[in-house]
Amino acid sequence: MRKLLIFISVFCFITAWGQGKDSTFENANAAYNAGQFENAVILYKKILDNGQHSAELYFNLANTYYRLNQVGESIFYFEKAKQLNPNDQDILVNSAFAQNMAIDAVEVLPKSQITQWKEKTIGLLSQEGWAYFAVFLIWLLVLFWGIYLWNKVPIVKRTFFLLTIVSALLLMGSLSIAFIKSSNAEETTYGILFNQKIEVWAEPNSRAEVLFLLHEGTKVQMLDQLQEWQKIRIANGSEGWIKNGKVRSLKGFK
User: Fold this and answer.
1) Residue 35: which CATH number?
2) pTM for the whole thing?
3) Which of 69, 161, 178, 240 is the 20 to 30 Å CA partner of 200?
């Protein structure tokens, strides 16, 4: 929610770091096209270390790791790209290819139509996208209200009064969605497993039953932690505890 408030409070500020023109980004792309994948990774990571991030950057980095057959890294950065641009078809298609490299084929639990509709609506834009959309609606709301007050023609006043109401309703809806998306992001933490192979236990002790095995590249939801033990849930709803798990959180910008 704090991120949303920052966007709203500085809605007149437009950020554009010009990644496409950045020399480091161009050099990284050139290294990738030349097949110098290790060098490309170094250059892409340098951009991340400078605090710059975008769906395109994560996408290119994921593709580079895919070429290096590093399944965990590839899946991790495709997931990061999807967070910023969830409906990009290139990201979705290449992410599916990367998932095919993973050993664990975890079936996703079926969802009701209402849940699917809700997730599709929330997923139309990223959290930043909904914030920018709210900013756009604020400008429209101010514009329509100003025209309504200024204009003296009855039919024009009625038209822009209606447009003002519609804009206000859309603004409230977009803010609500952004709030829900922000709350979900704060309450739910996902990560990518980087252990080559790890046992999942019924309880956080080595005397418990081993439920199943997981491998590098599996996406897990992190539920709890007890010393060196982590409680996780996978996409099919199965839960358990892993010991000394190398799980890299998808939160943050690296």
Assistant:
1) 1.25.40.10
2) 0.69
3) 69
